[in-house]
Amino acid sequence: MVLIYSNDRKLALEMLAKGRELADEQGKQLTVAVISNKDTATDEYIRHGADKVFVAHMDMDSFKVEEYTDILAGIMEKTGAETVLIGSNRDGKELAPRLASLLDTGCVTDITDVYIKDGDLTAERVIYSGNAVAVERFIKKPHIMTVPGKLFDPLPPDDSRVGEVITENIDFEPYPSKIINIQRMVSEGINVEDAVSIVSCGRGFKNREDMTLAEELADLLPGNTMGCSRPISADLKWMTEDHWIGLSGHKVKPKLYFAIGISGQIQHIAGMRDSDIIVAINKDPEALIFKSADYGIVGDLYQVLPKLVDAIKTKMS
Protein backbone atom coordinates (compact mmCIF):
# COMPACT_ATOMS: atom_id res chain seq x y z
CA MET A 1 0.00 0.00 0.00
CA VAL A 2 1.23 3.48 -0.94
CA LEU A 3 -0.04 6.25 1.35
CA ILE A 4 -0.15 9.99 0.59
CA TYR A 5 -0.54 12.65 3.26
CA SER A 6 -0.41 16.43 3.25
CA ASN A 7 -2.59 19.04 4.91
CA ASP A 8 -2.05 21.09 1.72
CA ARG A 9 -4.60 19.85 -0.84
CA LYS A 10 -2.65 21.06 -3.87
CA LEU A 11 0.50 19.33 -2.69
CA ALA A 12 -1.43 16.11 -2.04
CA LEU A 13 -2.74 16.18 -5.63
CA GLU A 14 0.82 16.62 -6.93
CA MET A 15 2.08 13.66 -4.88
CA LEU A 16 -0.76 11.49 -6.17
CA ALA A 17 0.88 11.47 -9.61
CA LYS A 18 4.08 9.86 -8.29
CA GLY A 19 2.13 7.70 -5.84
CA ARG A 20 0.02 6.31 -8.69
CA GLU A 21 3.18 5.43 -10.60
CA LEU A 22 4.71 3.63 -7.61
CA ALA A 23 1.49 1.79 -6.78
CA ASP A 24 1.00 0.57 -10.35
CA GLU A 25 4.60 -0.60 -10.65
CA GLN A 26 4.28 -2.68 -7.47
CA GLY A 27 0.71 -3.83 -8.06
CA LYS A 28 -0.51 -2.05 -4.92
CA GLN A 29 -3.32 0.31 -4.01
CA LEU A 30 -2.93 4.05 -3.49
CA THR A 31 -4.56 5.70 -0.47
CA VAL A 32 -4.80 9.34 0.56
CA ALA A 33 -4.90 10.05 4.30
CA VAL A 34 -7.02 12.98 5.45
CA ILE A 35 -6.82 14.15 9.06
CA SER A 36 -9.57 16.66 9.67
CA ASN A 37 -12.65 17.48 11.70
CA LYS A 38 -14.30 19.09 8.69
CA ASP A 39 -15.91 17.79 5.52
CA THR A 40 -13.33 17.32 2.77
CA ALA A 41 -13.52 16.97 -1.00
CA THR A 42 -12.56 13.28 -0.95
CA ASP A 43 -13.93 12.62 -4.45
CA GLU A 44 -11.30 14.95 -5.88
CA TYR A 45 -8.49 12.68 -4.68
CA ILE A 46 -10.14 9.68 -6.33
CA ARG A 47 -10.55 11.55 -9.62
CA HIS A 48 -6.82 12.35 -9.50
CA GLY A 49 -5.66 8.77 -9.03
CA ALA A 50 -6.42 7.50 -5.51
CA ASP A 51 -7.99 4.08 -4.95
CA LYS A 52 -9.04 4.93 -1.40
CA VAL A 53 -9.37 7.94 0.86
CA PHE A 54 -8.96 7.31 4.58
CA VAL A 55 -10.52 10.13 6.62
CA ALA A 56 -9.51 10.26 10.29
CA HIS A 57 -11.86 12.50 12.21
CA MET A 58 -10.29 14.26 15.18
CA ASP A 59 -11.30 17.08 17.47
CA MET A 60 -8.47 19.55 16.94
CA ASP A 61 -8.62 23.00 15.38
CA SER A 62 -4.98 23.19 14.27
CA PHE A 63 -1.98 21.00 13.45
CA LYS A 64 -0.15 19.58 16.47
CA VAL A 65 2.68 17.26 15.55
CA GLU A 66 2.57 14.87 18.51
CA GLU A 67 -1.07 13.91 18.00
CA TYR A 68 -0.81 13.92 14.20
CA THR A 69 2.12 11.52 14.37
CA ASP A 70 0.12 9.02 16.41
CA ILE A 71 -2.91 9.41 14.13
CA LEU A 72 -0.90 8.88 10.95
CA ALA A 73 0.81 5.86 12.49
CA GLY A 74 -2.65 4.48 13.28
CA ILE A 75 -3.77 5.02 9.69
CA MET A 76 -0.65 3.21 8.46
CA GLU A 77 -1.44 0.26 10.71
CA LYS A 78 -5.05 0.07 9.52
CA THR A 79 -4.18 0.38 5.83
CA GLY A 80 -0.98 -1.68 5.86
CA ALA A 81 0.94 1.19 4.24
CA GLU A 82 4.55 0.37 3.38
CA THR A 83 5.44 3.51 1.42
CA VAL A 84 4.43 6.94 2.75
CA LEU A 85 4.81 10.23 0.87
CA ILE A 86 4.39 13.29 3.10
CA GLY A 87 4.14 16.82 1.75
CA SER A 88 7.26 18.83 2.56
CA ASN A 89 5.63 21.98 3.87
CA ARG A 90 6.22 23.40 7.34
CA ASP A 91 4.01 20.80 9.06
CA GLY A 92 5.16 17.86 6.95
CA LYS A 93 8.83 18.53 7.65
CA GLU A 94 8.08 18.30 11.34
CA LEU A 95 5.80 15.28 11.05
CA ALA A 96 7.84 12.93 8.82
CA PRO A 97 11.01 12.46 10.94
CA ARG A 98 8.96 12.08 14.10
CA LEU A 99 6.85 9.40 12.41
CA ALA A 100 10.00 7.60 11.19
CA SER A 101 11.46 7.67 14.69
CA LEU A 102 8.24 6.30 16.18
CA LEU A 103 8.23 3.42 13.66
CA ASP A 104 12.02 2.87 13.90
CA THR A 105 12.60 3.34 10.21
CA GLY A 106 14.37 5.70 7.84
CA CYS A 107 13.20 8.99 6.38
CA VAL A 108 14.43 10.66 3.18
CA THR A 109 13.65 14.37 3.11
CA ASP A 110 12.89 16.62 0.14
CA ILE A 111 13.20 13.97 -2.56
CA THR A 112 13.50 14.96 -6.21
CA ASP A 113 12.50 11.51 -7.49
CA VAL A 114 11.62 8.04 -6.24
CA TYR A 115 11.50 4.76 -8.19
CA ILE A 116 12.00 1.00 -8.02
CA LYS A 117 15.51 -0.18 -8.89
CA ASP A 118 16.65 -3.80 -8.59
CA GLY A 119 13.56 -4.51 -6.51
CA ASP A 120 14.29 -1.79 -3.93
CA LEU A 121 12.62 1.57 -3.45
CA THR A 122 15.22 4.21 -4.29
CA ALA A 123 14.99 7.97 -3.73
CA GLU A 124 17.05 10.88 -4.99
CA ARG A 125 17.56 14.25 -3.35
CA VAL A 126 19.74 17.30 -3.91
CA ILE A 127 22.63 17.85 -1.48
CA TYR A 128 25.51 20.32 -1.04
CA SER A 129 23.35 23.27 -2.11
CA GLY A 130 22.51 21.63 -5.42
CA ASN A 131 26.05 20.58 -6.34
CA ALA A 132 25.32 16.84 -6.05
CA VAL A 133 22.48 14.34 -6.02
CA ALA A 134 22.30 11.67 -3.32
CA VAL A 135 20.82 8.30 -4.35
CA GLU A 136 19.42 6.55 -1.28
CA ARG A 137 18.02 3.03 -1.08
CA PHE A 138 15.53 1.90 1.55
CA ILE A 139 16.54 -1.30 3.33
CA LYS A 140 13.67 -1.37 5.81
CA LYS A 141 9.91 -0.86 5.73
CA PRO A 142 7.94 1.33 6.01
CA HIS A 143 9.48 3.82 3.59
CA ILE A 144 8.90 7.44 4.61
CA MET A 145 9.70 10.42 2.39
CA THR A 146 8.90 14.12 2.21
CA VAL A 147 8.02 15.62 -1.18
CA PRO A 148 8.44 19.34 -1.98
CA GLY A 149 5.79 21.25 -3.86
CA LYS A 150 5.99 21.88 -7.61
CA LEU A 151 7.93 18.63 -8.11
CA PHE A 152 5.25 16.60 -9.89
CA ASP A 153 2.32 17.71 -12.03
CA PRO A 154 -1.09 16.40 -10.89
CA LEU A 155 -2.73 13.77 -13.05
CA PRO A 156 -5.65 15.00 -15.17
CA PRO A 157 -8.94 14.40 -13.33
CA ASP A 158 -10.83 11.31 -14.46
CA ASP A 159 -14.54 11.52 -13.61
CA SER A 160 -15.01 7.84 -14.45
CA ARG A 161 -12.71 6.66 -11.64
CA VAL A 162 -14.36 5.04 -8.62
CA GLY A 163 -12.86 4.54 -5.21
CA GLU A 164 -13.61 3.89 -1.56
CA VAL A 165 -13.90 6.48 1.19
CA ILE A 166 -13.24 5.16 4.71
CA THR A 167 -14.12 7.33 7.70
CA GLU A 168 -12.93 6.34 11.17
CA ASN A 169 -11.97 7.79 14.49
CA ILE A 170 -8.34 7.04 15.40
CA ASP A 171 -7.64 6.75 19.12
CA PHE A 172 -4.77 8.84 20.42
CA GLU A 173 -3.58 10.17 23.75
CA PRO A 174 -3.47 13.96 24.02
CA TYR A 175 -0.03 15.38 24.81
CA PRO A 176 0.56 18.00 27.51
CA SER A 177 2.06 20.56 25.11
CA LYS A 178 -0.29 23.34 24.03
CA ILE A 179 -0.47 25.77 21.13
CA ILE A 180 -0.81 29.20 22.72
CA ASN A 181 -1.17 31.35 19.62
CA ILE A 182 -0.94 31.11 15.83
CA GLN A 183 -0.05 34.26 13.92
CA ARG A 184 -0.47 34.00 10.18
CA MET A 185 2.04 35.74 7.93
CA VAL A 186 0.31 38.35 5.82
CA SER A 187 1.53 38.30 2.21
CA GLU A 188 0.91 41.09 -0.27
CA GLY A 189 -0.08 40.19 -3.82
CA ILE A 190 0.11 36.73 -5.36
CA ASN A 191 1.98 33.97 -3.51
CA VAL A 192 5.27 33.36 -5.33
CA GLU A 193 4.57 29.61 -5.42
CA ASP A 194 1.30 30.22 -7.30
CA ALA A 195 2.49 32.97 -9.64
CA VAL A 196 2.39 32.54 -13.41
CA SER A 197 5.20 35.05 -13.89
CA ILE A 198 7.83 36.32 -11.44
CA VAL A 199 10.16 39.29 -11.68
CA SER A 200 12.99 38.66 -9.24
CA CYS A 201 15.52 41.24 -7.99
CA GLY A 202 19.11 40.76 -6.83
CA ARG A 203 22.09 42.77 -5.64
CA GLY A 204 22.41 44.45 -9.02
CA PHE A 205 19.94 47.02 -7.69
CA LYS A 206 21.79 49.81 -5.89
CA ASN A 207 18.86 51.16 -3.88
CA ARG A 208 15.53 49.85 -2.64
CA GLU A 209 13.68 52.57 -4.54
CA ASP A 210 15.24 51.39 -7.81
CA MET A 211 13.21 48.18 -7.70
CA THR A 212 10.27 50.17 -9.04
CA LEU A 213 11.91 49.54 -12.42
CA ALA A 214 11.28 45.82 -11.93
CA GLU A 215 7.78 46.48 -10.60
CA GLU A 216 6.90 48.30 -13.82
CA LEU A 217 7.89 45.20 -15.76
CA ALA A 218 5.94 42.92 -13.42
CA ASP A 219 2.79 45.03 -13.83
CA LEU A 220 2.78 44.21 -17.54
CA LEU A 221 2.84 40.44 -17.02
CA PRO A 222 -0.10 38.11 -16.26
CA GLY A 223 -0.38 36.46 -12.84
CA ASN A 224 2.69 38.34 -11.69
CA THR A 225 4.45 38.87 -8.42
CA MET A 226 7.83 40.10 -7.27
CA GLY A 227 10.59 37.80 -6.06
CA CYS A 228 14.12 38.29 -4.79
CA SER A 229 17.39 36.59 -3.98
CA ARG A 230 18.65 35.99 -0.45
CA PRO A 231 20.59 39.28 0.05
CA ILE A 232 17.56 41.41 -0.83
CA SER A 233 15.38 39.71 1.80
CA ALA A 234 17.69 38.31 4.49
CA ASP A 235 20.45 40.93 4.50
CA LEU A 236 19.06 44.23 3.22
CA LYS A 237 15.42 43.63 4.27
CA TRP A 238 14.22 45.36 1.10
CA MET A 239 11.58 42.65 0.62
CA THR A 240 9.89 40.27 3.06
CA GLU A 241 10.79 36.59 3.29
CA ASP A 242 7.64 35.51 1.46
CA HIS A 243 9.32 36.87 -1.72
CA TRP A 244 12.64 35.09 -1.10
CA ILE A 245 13.32 32.45 -3.77
CA GLY A 246 16.05 29.88 -3.28
CA LEU A 247 17.23 26.87 -1.35
CA SER A 248 16.32 28.42 2.00
CA GLY A 249 13.38 30.37 0.62
CA HIS A 250 10.58 29.36 -1.73
CA LYS A 251 10.77 26.91 -4.62
CA VAL A 252 8.83 28.21 -7.61
CA LYS A 253 7.76 26.93 -11.01
CA PRO A 254 6.24 29.82 -12.99
CA LYS A 255 5.79 29.91 -16.74
CA LEU A 256 8.06 32.98 -16.94
CA TYR A 257 10.87 33.97 -14.55
CA PHE A 258 12.90 37.18 -14.81
CA ALA A 259 16.20 37.16 -12.89
CA ILE A 260 17.33 40.79 -12.78
CA GLY A 261 20.69 41.69 -11.26
CA ILE A 262 21.00 38.18 -9.80
CA SER A 263 24.41 36.52 -10.03
CA GLY A 264 23.02 32.97 -10.13
CA GLN A 265 24.54 31.25 -7.13
CA ILE A 266 23.39 27.64 -6.75
CA GLN A 267 21.29 28.49 -3.68
CA HIS A 268 19.08 30.72 -5.82
CA ILE A 269 19.07 28.40 -8.84
CA ALA A 270 17.76 25.58 -6.64
CA GLY A 271 14.59 27.58 -6.03
CA MET A 272 13.74 28.54 -9.63
CA ARG A 273 15.42 26.02 -11.92
CA ASP A 274 12.09 24.38 -12.86
CA SER A 275 10.63 27.59 -14.34
CA ASP A 276 9.37 27.08 -17.90
CA ILE A 277 11.20 30.11 -19.34
CA ILE A 278 14.03 31.95 -17.56
CA VAL A 279 15.17 35.40 -18.69
CA ALA A 280 18.33 36.84 -17.11
CA ILE A 281 19.50 40.44 -17.13
CA ASN A 282 23.00 41.06 -15.82
CA LYS A 283 25.88 43.34 -16.80
CA ASP A 284 28.45 40.60 -16.12
CA PRO A 285 28.68 38.32 -19.19
CA GLU A 286 30.28 35.64 -16.98
CA ALA A 287 27.45 35.61 -14.42
CA LEU A 288 26.38 32.09 -13.50
CA ILE A 289 22.72 32.95 -14.03
CA PHE A 290 23.23 32.81 -17.80
CA LYS A 291 24.00 29.08 -17.58
CA SER A 292 20.44 28.47 -16.33
CA ALA A 293 18.69 31.04 -18.54
CA ASP A 294 16.77 30.41 -21.74
CA TYR A 295 17.31 34.03 -22.75
CA GLY A 296 20.02 36.36 -21.52
CA ILE A 297 20.54 40.10 -21.83
CA VAL A 298 24.03 41.35 -21.00
CA GLY A 299 23.68 44.97 -19.95
CA ASP A 300 23.10 47.46 -17.17
CA LEU A 301 19.64 46.80 -15.73
CA TYR A 302 19.14 50.55 -15.30
CA GLN A 303 19.35 50.90 -19.07
CA VAL A 304 17.80 47.59 -20.11
CA LEU A 305 14.63 47.63 -17.97
CA PRO A 306 13.17 50.95 -19.21
CA LYS A 307 13.76 49.90 -22.83
CA LEU A 308 12.26 46.46 -22.20
CA VAL A 309 9.19 47.96 -20.56
CA ASP A 310 8.71 50.41 -23.45
CA ALA A 311 9.11 47.60 -25.99
CA ILE A 312 6.47 45.46 -24.24
CA LYS A 313 4.06 48.40 -24.01
CA THR A 314 4.52 49.09 -27.71
CA LYS A 315 3.94 45.44 -28.59
CA MET A 316 0.82 45.27 -26.40
CA SER A 317 -0.66 48.38 -27.97
Structure summary:
The chain is 29% helix and 25% strand.
General description of the model:
This protein has 317 residues and is of the alpha/beta class. It folds into two domains: 168 residues, Rossmann fold, CATH 3.40.50.620; 120 residues, TPP-binding domain (Rossmann fold). 29% of the residues lie in helices and 25% in strands. It has nine helices and 15 strands. It has a seven-stranded parallel sheet, sandwiched between helices. β13, α7 and β14 form a beta-alpha-beta unit. α3 crosses α4 and α5 runs parallel beside α9. It starts with a strand and ends with a helix. The model has no long low-confidence stretch (mean pLDDT 92).
Protein topology:
Layout: E1 2-5, H1 9-26, E2 30-35, H2 42-47, E3 52-57, H3 65-79, E4 83-87, H4 90-102, E5 107-108, E6 111-117, E7 120-127, E8 132-137, E9 143-147, E10 164-169, E11 197-201, H5 212-218, E12 224-228, H6 230-235, E13 256-260, H7 266-272, E14 277-282, H8 289-292, E15 295-298, H9 301-316
Helix pairs in contact: 3-4, 5-9
